[in-house]
Automatic annotation (TrEMBL):
Record has Lipid metabolism as a keyword: no
Helicase C-terminal domain sequence ranges: 311-462
GO cellular component: Ski complex
Helicase ATP-binding domain: residues covered: 40-198
UniProt GO BP: nuclear-transcribed mRNA catabolic process, 3'-5' exonucleolytic nonsense-mediated decay
Species whose genome carries this gene: Candidatus Nanopelagicus hibericus
InterPro entries: DEAD/DEAH_box_helicase_dom, Helicase_ATP-bd, Helicase_C-like, P-loop_NTPase, RNA-DNA_Helicase, Ski2/MTR4_C
Keyword Hydrolase on entry: yes
Molecular function per GO: ATP binding; helicase activity; hydrolase activity; nucleic acid binding
Ranges in a coiled coil: 518-594
Alphabetized PANTHER family for the sequence: ATP-DEPENDENT RNA AND DNA HELICASE, ATP-DEPENDENT RNA HELICASE SUPV3L1, MITOCHONDRIAL-RELATED
Protein name: ATP-dependent RNA helicase HelY
Sorted UniProt keywords: ATP-binding, Coiled coil, Helicase, Hydrolase, Nucleotide-binding
């Protein structure tokens, strides 16, 4: 008799097969879902586990089971997250449950109880520990990798794979991912690099999601019965698009869209607040808040406003009073008291944390946010509103993907509070409900590796394993695994084409001679005739060559064959297949060992610039091994050239900013004069040298230094106020704080990598780690 999952679990409980899971689950006021139970069983059985489930489904409970196992059985557990804000959040949750003495936090600029039994950290911290053979890893039993789908991230994704490949086999990995359609493929790769790994996929949302379209003032369901598009919506669209024939002036005239403030008022009337409205622009998020204030919207009562004021006072008590105006504090606080806020990367971290806290407590009812809010922060809402289904990706306006749509709308529906979640798309003339329906119902969001070796990664691997073993380890990456799987498909197609080609060869055979040779000559003539119209060669030269081939053609044995044209048809089809085979073979060659080939090219560069000799790491190589980031080699070369040695603390900060800052626009940078200008000129020459070496090898070039933050960072290091720096600037306070934090992080790396710079770096850190930067905390 086959048991249902719940019956199977009940039986296993009675048999005492999974006592630790049973004891853990009894600590919750609700029953665990089946996927959580299955994942805990896998962990208790000594296996690794990959859990792929929708946002808000409760994946982190599986991670907390690993914490519980360590608390009760000894050893250590690391809980990794992709961003500092998430690390902060998880640290606070675990401290509340297990107490301060057992929980630590490491985020680069924050270190709390780092040798604790449980340490929450950003993913990069663990990667750095592995490369430095840190003693902290000793006795490590479990690593939770929250939001592991981040390994698809173009810039940071490689870090996840580095950990998964190089962490000791004795450590059990708990990988927690958003819903991805190729979880089995990812799990198959984990099995090859980590050993026995159970893949557990759940597509069940704990709170059902309903999709709507706001058509003017009418809130219509996107889907009707059997998940088919709502016929009323499609009829309204048809009426809107119906035009007077032949009159070009007639354009589709839909209903007048509601303003942002009117939308919030409508959601309030429909009992659909709290809501997050995703707007893919920081400026428009701020503008939406202003529009709601101008409309006089107030979503809070007297008691709530009092609570909001006390949270604000607690969270911003360390901010300098003279900076409050430039920070936009008064408008921000007024909006919060009314239950309205913006949330984006341009905000001061203390402001973002306050918005998150008040939203979680239910005091803020309407948040206008960029998509960064969808990155795992615990801010579920009753309703999610999407203003548009396209966004600016830095180069063009592109449609959001089904995966992005799912991630954004996944915020709708608060478990234990709401019986349903709601996604609302605002209708406009560019919207097509068929496309929206396709986007909302698509369940294909594959996880694609973005892994590629960097200079720093390569040096560290060579240092630890030697070139050959390092190369082999890179070939075990998910990127290569996926490339190899694609190669299997291409190879299968080649074999199929070759079989068809050989059959056609047989049908093209001529009893008089080699018909494929004859057919090849006919193909040459066609090509030359085509070239005659486009080629820069002189016409008479091409015509002479055609004439010569025609003579050979007429003298060929097959030319007199009565079945010549039939043979030709088969031969031409065979030649077309051969061209396709050649193209597929070229694609295979470009994918085979692609990661290892990049590693080989990086080794050439490292050897050329003197960082390695054979398998020996030079002194400069040991320094490069401690510098992480997109511009690692440029930083190392600058240190090697002694460019940083004679700079003042403020000038050093300005120069270091060029390695980490990325301008949001292409305006000419305001560059300080004097020693900074001289240093930047030298750095530009070094970059040109690296770029030339990379170009010669067809290696994807390192990004160029960016001078856009030099002026602001130098002024801050020189002691100027935040107000004087930001006044009249396009720089947001959030960007300013984040960039300064990145400078601090790189300066700390340089301090460890280049001891000769320690005194000047210490002075620089003292000058910039002050005021709003110090009190930004670890939330950046």
């Amino acid at each position: 008799m086959t048991l249902s999952p719940s019956e199977s679990y009940a039986k296993s409980k009675q048999a005492g097969k999974f006592p630790k899971t049973r004891k853990f689950s009894e600590g919750f006021p609700f029953e665990l879902d089946q996927f959580q139970i299955d994942a805990c069983h896998a962990l208790e059985s000594g296996k690794g586990v990959l859990v792929a489930a929708p946002t808000g489904a409760g994946k982190t409970i599986v991670g907390e089971f690993a914490v519980d196992l360590v608390i009760n059985s000894g050893g250590k557990c690391f809980y990794t997250t992709p961003i500092k804000a998430l690390s902060n959040q998880k640290y606070t949750e675990l401290v509340a449950k297990y107490g301060e003495d057992r929980i630590g936090l490491l985020t680069g600029d924050t270190s709390v109880n780092s040798e604790a039994q449980i340490v929450v950290m950003t993913t990069e911290i663990l990667r750095n520990m592995i490369y430095s053979n840190s003693q902290t890893i000793n006795d490590l039993k479990y690593v939770v990798m929250d939001e592991v789908h981040y390994l698809a991230d173009k810039f940071r994704g490689a870090v996840w794979e580095e950990i998964l490949i190089h962490l000791s086999d004795a450590v059990q990995i708990i990988s927690l991912s958003a819903t991805v359609s190729n979880a089995e493929e990812f799990g198959e790769w984990l099995q090859t690099v980590r050993g026995e790994t159970e893949v557990i996929v759940s597509e069940i949302r704990p709170v059902p999601l309903y999709q709507h379209v706001l058509f003017g003032n009418r809130l219509l369901d996107l889907f009707g019965e059997n998940q088919k598009l709502n016929p009323e919506l499609t009829r309204l669209e048809r009426d809107t698009y119906r035009q007077v024939r032949g009159n070009w002036r007639d354009r589709p005239k839909g209903p007048k869209p509601l303003s942002r403030s009117e939308i919030i008022e409508k959601l309030d009337r429909e009992n659909l607040l709290p809501a997050i409205t995703f707007i893919f622009s920081r400026n428009n998020c701020d503008a939406a808040v202003r529009q709601c204030l101008a409309a006089g919207i107030k979503l809070t009562n007297t008691e709530e406003r009092s609570e909001i004021r006390s949270v604000i006072a607690r969270n911003i008590k360390n901010l300098a009073e003279e900076d409050l105006v430039v920070l936009g504090y008064y408008e921000w606080a007024d909006a919060l008291e009314r239950g309205i806020a913006a949330h984006h990367a341009g905000l001061l971290p203390a402001f973002k944390v306050t918005v998150e806290e008040l939203f979680q407590k239910g005091y803020v009812k309407a948040v206008f946010a960029t998509e960064t809010l969808a990155l795992g922060i615990n801010m579920p809402a009753r309703t999610v509103v999407l203003e548009k289904l396209s966004k600016w990706n830095g180069e063009a306006h592109v449609a959001i993907s089904p995966g992005e749509y799912t991630q954004l709308t996944g915020r709708a529906g608060r478990r234990g509070i709401d019986i349903e979640g709601n996604a609302v798309i605002l209708w406009n003339n560019d919207l097509d409900s068929t496309s929206v329906g396709g986007l909302a119902s698509t369940r294909t969001y594959p996880l694609k590796s973005s892994f590629k070796p960097t200079y720093n990664m390569s040096i560290n691997l060579i240092s630890q394993f030697g070139s050959e073993r390092a190369r082999t380890s890179l070939e075990s990456s998910l990127a290569q695994f996926q490339a190899d799987k694609a190669v299997v498909g291409l190879a299968k197609q080649i074999r199929k084409n070759e079989k068809l080609r050989d059959e056609l060869y047989q049908q093209a055979k001529c009893h008089l001679g080699d018909f494929m040779q004859y057919s090849e000559m006919r193909s040459q003539i066609k090509k030359l005739e085509s070239d005659n119209k486009r080629s820069k060669r002189k016409r008479h030269e091409i015509e002479e060559e055609i004439g010569n081939i025609r003579k050979l053609l007429k003298n060929h044995a097959c030319h007199s064959c009565p079945d010549r044209e039939n043979h030709s048809r088969f031969a031409e089809r065979a030649q077309r297949l051969q061209r396709e085979i050649d193209g597929l073979t070229e694609r295979i060659n470009s994918r085979t060992n692609v990661i290892a080939k990049r590693f080989d090219l990086i080794k050439v560069i490292l050897d050329k610039f003197g960082y390695i000799k054979a398998d020996e790491i030079a002194k400069s190589g040991k320094m490069l091994a401690k510098i992480y980031g997109e511009t690692d080699l440029l930083v190392a070369e600058t240190v090697q050239a002694g460019i940083l040695n004679t700079l003042t603390p403020a000038d050093l900060v300005a120069v270091v900013s060029t390695y980490v800052y990325e301008s949001r626009n292409e305006e000419a940078a305001k560059v300080p004069r004097g020693e900074v200008a001289v240093a930047l000129a030298s750095i530009s020459k070094i970059y040109a040298k690296i770029h030339e070496a990379e170009s010669e090898l067809n290696l994807e070039p390192m990004r160029a230094p960016d001078f856009g933050f030099c002026w602001a960072s130098q002024k801050w290091a020189a002691g100027q106020s935040l107000t004087s720096i930001l006044k009249g600037s396009d720089l947001t306070v959030g960007d300013f704080v984040r960039s300064m934090k990145q400078i601090i992080d790189l300066l700390r790396q340089l301090r460890a990598a280049a001891p000769q710079l320690q005194p000047i770096i210490d002075q620089s850190l003292t000058k910039i780690d002050r005021g709003v930067i110090t009190y930004a905390g670890a939330a950046v």
